[in-house]
Design brief:
CATH class of the largest domain: Alpha Beta
CATH topology of the largest domain: Fructose-1,6-Bisphosphatase, Chain A, domain 1
Helix content: 25-40%
Distance between the termini: 47 Å
Shape: globular
CATH architecture of the largest domain: 2-Layer Sandwich
Strand content: 25-35%
């Protein structure tokens, strides 16, 4: 009997990143017509918003992942919120956030993303992040971290050496006084707010230095960005100093900090 295809084989062959990037960019094309077009958001059980763009993009991603790798399960945001989060995590699975930063997307902001990550042994071993409004994709895996504009070639990216005046990134929902204290706690005299998983990518490409997160997030919010950042030489650590792991109860993260150099 022929063994079922595995994305780990594609990862080893160096073809997985391109395949995932094409899927994420196709999802971005689904999302783009809804942006700044009076999109209507519904409220989920946790009061977070969801739109038709989220649902349509997730449907495309799951279909495109299932076709080549039918035996690899996916934990995806909208399906999990609608039908319940899985009770246990397998050894190998996908984490999918079809539209991270929905609140900003509904407002017409640019900083929302499509996220696909492969988790193996509780670690994000490959991930892609696409920003539909910016037309940029970031990706990370064993070969390092890369970035490309739509239709362009991949270019390598790397975290920068920590500068004398380090810059922190914060979620835009953080109060300015709290953001300033967090930035100072991490040795930064400056900070700026930004939505979605773009924060991981900004650090990975050497634009910023640290992203502290004190509130909870779902694992699909962070996995792809963590894969990109770690491939670029950065780290994402929990409160005890261990790398952020996946397949936790409820697929939820506690506090963490993303670092560049």
């Amino acid at each position: 009997m022929t063994a079922a295809p595995s994305p780990l084989d594609a990862l080893s062959a160096g073809t997985l990143i391109d395949a995932l990037a094409e899927i994420a960019e196709a999802a971005a094309a689904v999302i783009r017509p809804y942006w700044r077009n009076a999109v209507v958001a519904d409220a989920k059980a946790d009061d977070s918003p969801v739109t038709r763009a989220d649902r349509d993009a997730e449907a495309l991603i799951l279909e495109r992942l299932t076709a080549p790798w039918p035996d690899v399960p996916a934990v995806a945001e909208e399906a999990s919120e609608a039908h319940g989060r899985p009770e246990r995590a397998p050894e190998l699975f996908w984490l999918v956030d079809p539209l991270d930063g929905t609140r900003g997307f509904v407002r017409g902001d640019e900083h929302f993303t499509v996220n696909i990550a492969l988790i193996h042994g509780r670690r994000p071993v490959a991930g892609v992040v696409t920003a539909p409004a910016l037309d940029v994709t970031w990706a990370g895996g064993p070969g390092g971290a890369v970035r490309r504009r739509a239709g362009g070639a991949w270019e390598s990216i790397r975290v920068r050496p920590r500068p004398a005046v380090a810059l922190a990134l914060m979620s835009r929902g953080v109060k300015p006084e709290d953001a300033a204290k967090l930035a100072e706690l991490h040795g930064c005299v400056e900070w700026r707010g930004e939505d979605s998983s773009l924060k991981f990518c900004r650090i990975a490409e050497g634009d910023c230095d640290v992203y502290p997160r004190t509130g909870p997030t779902s694992e699909w919010d962070t996995a792809a960005g963590q894969a990109v950042l770690e491939a670029a030489g950065g780290r994402v650590l929990g409160p005890e100093g261990a790398p952020l792991a996946y397949g936790k109860p409820g697929f939820m993260n506690g506090a963490f900090t993303a670092y560049g150099a």
